[in-house]
Amino acid sequence: MSFEAAMRLAIAQADRVKGTTYPNPPVGAVVLDSAGDIVGVGATEPVGGAHAEVVALRAAGERARGGTAVVTLEPCNHHGRTPPCVDALLAAGISTVVHAVADPNPVAADGAARLAGAGVTTVPGVLGAEVAGGSLREWLHKLRTGRPHVTWKVAGSVDGRSAAADGTSQWITSPQARADVHLRRAAADAVIVGTGTVVADDPALTARTPDGALYDRQPLRVVVGLREVAADRKVRNADSPTMLLRTRDPAEVLRALADRTDLFLESGPALASAFLRAGLIDRILAYVAPVLIGGPNTVIDTIGVDTLTQAPRWSYDSVLRVGPDVLLSLVPD
């Protein structure tokens, strides 16, 4: 198996555990024997459990000796809750280590250098951009900036409307798009809305399967605003914890959620615009349905743009079809 093919399998393993490994990053690993055949796969276990390399090495056993480890993140070189992954790789007799992204954490970094010093061949950067923009996106962002990564999820018509003139909005996007949102909720640390959304739509903000069952993992539900949230609102039920933040300041919201990594903003136009004005949105996920609605209910309020030269520019990270809809992923220029 090629290094790239093995890395894609490792990426799939990392994607599978995303959201379950905090504060550790979601990492995937594949072990190939000396002939290049898969003998072990693994992903990071919940905190206190084994790292991805150790899980894959356990599955491989003696077949790992003389083989190759393919990992989405450079193996760690420090003793935290668990011993260094470098030690496990050396003890297993791995001869080559392939990784996608270098570990930017100064406490855990330099695993590849230590492996090379012990005579192990190291191959860095295989599918590095794909991993950095995928399963490790939010974790890397927090290491760089010191704050959680904020994704604004917005769903609307092709002309930028979130509801018809009478307020009806269920549903603009397709079942496939809504299923994709629920999968992303299940991987997020928290889902954020404003009190206006709770009053108008009474969302549950849980992560649910297409048949309505709850996923095993649920995000923290965060409601932001000064209005009271009635006890009978769905966000007050027992399906998932809920945090009520009596503020309208996005910076205060991030301070309250500083121990989290991956925040999913699903608010209406007022709170989303406040986050945009504050420069605190790191990615936009826009689900665009092929429908024209018109009218006053736009997906965003004013963001301080009085003339076109003031408009913030974004770059397309990816463009995907989701059923009949289009999912646009954008990052700031």
From TrEMBL:
Catalyzed reaction equations: 5-amino-6-(5-phospho-D-ribitylamino)uracil + NADP(+) = 5-amino-6-(5-phospho-D-ribosylamino)uracil + NADPH + H(+); 2,5-diamino-6-hydroxy-4-(5-phosphoribosylamino)-pyrimidine + H2O + H(+) = 5-amino-6-(5-phospho-D-ribosylamino)uracil + NH4(+)
Ranges for domain CMP/dCMP-type deaminase: 1-115
Cofactor: Zn(2+)
GO BP annotations listed: riboflavin biosynthetic process
Entry EC number(s): 3.5.4.26, 1.1.1.193
Pfam families tied to this protein: dCMP_cyt_deam_1, RibD_C
InterPro entries found in the cross-reference section: APOBEC/CMP_deaminase_Zn-bd, CMP_dCMP_dom, Cytidine_deaminase-like, DHFR-like_dom_sf, Eubact_RibD, RibDG_C, Riboflavin_Biosynth_HTPR
Comment on bound cofactor: Binds 1 zinc ion.
The name this protein goes by in its record: Riboflavin biosynthesis protein RibD
UniProt organism field: Mycolicibacterium chitae
